[in-house]
Design goal:
The protein is built from nine helices and twelve strands. The protein is an alpha+beta fold and 269 residues long. The chain folds into two domains: 65 residues, Multidrug-efflux Transporter Regulator, Chain: A, Domain 2 (Orthogonal Bundle); 150 residues, Multidrug-efflux Transporter 1 Regulator Bmrr, Chain A (Alpha-Beta Barrel). The strands form four sheets. Strands 3-9-12-11 form a four-stranded antiparallel β-sheet, sandwiched between helices. Strands 5-7-4-8 form a four-stranded antiparallel β-sheet. It is elongated and about 95 Å long.
């Protein structure tokens, strides 16, 4: 059969068939006119190649399979590919876990009207020394550290407890993660990190366009809660970046901030 007929039967385009032929995986007979005549054996080879490619074996792997009669060699190749797929499955499960965590945070953020009282799930470790991630190469993960982290906002607890009377409040922008995720990053919290203890938190939404300061009135809901309920914030804020909005040419970051008013040992991990 001619190459176009073989292409129709196998579902593999002619150029790919020619490349397989040039790599020695197909053995058609070349006629005097220069054209190749393909046989049923070539169709079998293409079916086998397509099957192996479906398992993500490379053409080089398949070529090595063709050159070996040893079943143990084939088993080793298949075992290596199986382990690779299991590794990918683990990656996908991790991605799903973090995506579901992200969905949970978005859902919690979307229902905040003024403030929300919430229970955190673990200690939050926030990094404001961003050079830490440039100088500590061991703090890596196959999904990327930013998949496991979120930009965060620090506001001093003295401000939240009403000990500030300026119009503008200085803020710090960093990045944070939960304590239990540090084990996945194979790193420890550096001395320069800020630890937000686990516990009952007061939370509110905050729009930030200036990454250095906000107006004091923006965090009035949290300040008022402490005064009205005769309690004190035991930590500064941490944060979760819900989304970024471009509003009339200005970047607006929608953060959910929270601070602890009561420590506890609850864990949802």
């Amino acid at each position: 059969m001619k190459i176009n007929e073989l292409s129709r039967l196998s579902g593999i385009n002619p150029e790919t068939i020619r490349s397989y032929r040039n790599k020695g995986l197909l053995h058609p007979v070349q006629n005097k006119n220069g054209y190749y005549e393909y046989s049923a054996a070539d169709y079998v080879s293409l079916a086998y190649i397509r099957k192996m490619r479906g398992y993500s074996f490379t053409i080089e792997d398949i070529g090595r399979m063709y050159s070996s009669r040893d079943p143990e060699f084939l088993l080793d190749v298949f075992e290596r590919e199986k382990l690779f797929l299991l590794d990918q499955i683990a990656d996908l499960q991790n991605r799903l876990r973090f995506l579901e965590l992200e969905q949970r945070h978005i859902q919690e953020s979307s229902v905040i009207d003024n403030i929300m009282i919430m229970q955190s799930i673990d200690e939050k470790i926030d990094f404001y020394d961003l050079d830490y991630f440039l100088t500590n190469r061991h703090a890596s993960h196959r999904l990327g550290i930013y998949t496991m982290m979120t930009p965060t906002v620090w506001i001093d607890p003295d401000v939240l407890n009403g000990g500030f009377d300026e119009e503008y409040v200085p803020i710090r922008i960093g990045i944070g993660t939960y304590r239990y995720l540090l084990s996945d990053l194979k790193t420890e919290a550096p001395a320069s990190s800020i630890i937000i203890p686990n516990g009952v938190c007061v939370s509110q939404m905050l729009e930030i366009s200036d990454m250095n300061q906000i107006r004091l009135e923006q965090i009035q809901p949290m300040i008022s809660y402490a005064k009205e309920n005769n309690c004190r914030y035991l930590s500064g804020t941490t944060g979760y970046l819900m989304n970024i909005e471009n509003r009339d040419g200005t970047q607006i970051c929608h953060f959910r901030i929270r601070a602890v008013v009561e420590k506890n040992d609850y864990s949802a991990v």
